[in-house]
Amino acid sequence: MTTAKKSMDDIMALCKRRGFVYQASEIYGGINGFWDYGPLGAQLKKNLRDAWWEDMVMNPCRGRRGPGGERVRCVPVETCIIQHPKVWEASGHLAGFADPMRKCPGCGHFVRADQYWETLAQGSEWLRSLVQEFEPSPEPTKSPGLDSARMLKWAKSKGKRLAPNLALVRNPEVTLSWLATRVNGQPDVPPELEEIVRYVATEQLHATGLQEPCPRCGGVLDAPAPFKLMFESWAGVTQSDDNKVYLRPETAQGIFVHFKNVVDTTRVKVPFGIGNTGRSFRNEITPRNFTFRSREFEQAELEFFCHPDEAAGWYAFWRDFRLEWWRSVGLGSDNLRLREHEKDELSHYSTATCDIEYRFPFTAPDFGELEGVAHRGCYDLTQHTEHSGVKLDYFDTERGETLPNGSRKGERYVPHVIEPAAGLDRGALAIVCEAYTRDESRPSPEIMRFHPRIAPIKAAVFPLVNKDGMPEVAERLHAELFARFGRAGFVEMDAKQSIGKRYARMDEAGCPCCFTVDGDTLKDQTVTVRDRDTGAQERIGIDRSAEYLAERLGA
Ligand code: ATP
Q1: 93 in ligand 1 pocket by Cβ < 6 Å?
Q2: HEC letters along 345-396
Q3: pLDDT at 207 over 80
Q4: Phi, psi at residue 16, to the nearest 5°?
Q5: Whole-prediction pTM value?
Q6: Are 231 and 246 in contact (CB under 8 A)?
Q7: Most ligand 1 atoms within 8 A of CB, residue of 339, 369, 418 to mutate
């Protein structure tokens, strides 16, 4: 089942019903762009964060050697959300971290200029309604696409309610006659939707040029203007500009500002990486697509410092490993891809950047970014050196000419940086979308096929009935499994409802294995194990349960 066929509404409903994701402040009507994780979602995201931490910081690249055959060394930091405002001046965020915004003077609605068409296609109620009027006309004499009579009727009825500021609604006869001369000129060519949208929003071509209408009310949008994305606050008693601080828009800068500290206080040598995870904040103009574009989200970023001559090799190394890593946590299908940026997409300091992208149900057939891997050159360390006056370079004792005593003269340089920057919320969302499966042949058709490492519930133990000694045996098995696997996720014990319903609940939660204690267990010391993905059941000795689960989880 490709994600294109999965319904985001179904996935969101399951996330709510089973406690993966809740709307933040839901009892007060929610707050746009903020999401909370329920019990299963919180554990799922923790498992994803832990997997990142383990495979990027503790045992980088799972022991794989670097491009020159060297061991890959990484260390962690944990840095503050609020930093000195000069950090954001140096990083360029204060001056440049803004999206181009267009405001509708009619209704006050804002749209991100660079995402205008997709926002319109996904979110405009009036456009959805109007598109229905473009259905091919049943009369063969009429040109395909546009039926002026139907559109006029729409403008005078639904249009009035849905898009009061649209030119077609305010001045339908003029707009339609004008539209007909342009769009309906060639009866056999179906008109492009974008073209029609522009014409129905424009009253007079010669006066204004073609317009792009407000997705909400159809009014003419203002020209794009920059909109700052950083949240502001104050640190201290006076709420003045002198005390202004910013919530970080990324975790990366916390790493750069401690480059020297880490070099001076640990034994790391270039090449090495510093990892940082935590919340970041961006006042996104149009938060949407569930958790995909939120105003508060979590990042997992690594800055890998290396000699400039080796940076290209490390870039390829991290790019390949990161793609493989996302596959390893459950995104193994062709919904995952790597996209190298074109030259004109690159930041001025970057010689290579790629995105690791996932085809979400709401982006399909297109893809949305999960992680960016960027070759940032020496931009960040140089910027912070200039703004702080503290030299952020490195003296490499293993480089330079060889001296008569056999040692090296050393070389001083500003390291280059490769940055794999991942979003944990987008990662969790991709994992949820990928795992979501419908199997109509099952009594309860929704199954979450999580990778065992990421699954929030690792196992469930069920006494078939809540009597005849079964609960006691089940309790003992539960305690044993919990002691061994409880650090990585829930081990559930459930005695309520029919066994079929209990299995279905676990399928929806993505629990890989269920163990059922029944009448035979008491006689022959065996239990039934049921596999989530196939629904197949087998009997194993109860004393083999932990080993069986370890194999299933790959633990
Ligand atoms: P986009 O182009 O989608 O706004 P970006 O290129 O600005 O993203 P980066 O600054 O490279 O994103 O941040 C690294 C990662 O942080 C992204 O790949 C994404 O996973 C995550 N991320 C960025 N913005 C958001 C957001 N508003 N909501 C959730 N995750 C985000």
Answers
A1: no
A2: HCCCCCCEEEEEEECCCCCCCCCEEEEEEEEEECHHHHHHHHHHCCCCCEEE
A3: no
A4: -75, -50
A5: 0.84
A6: yes
A7: 369
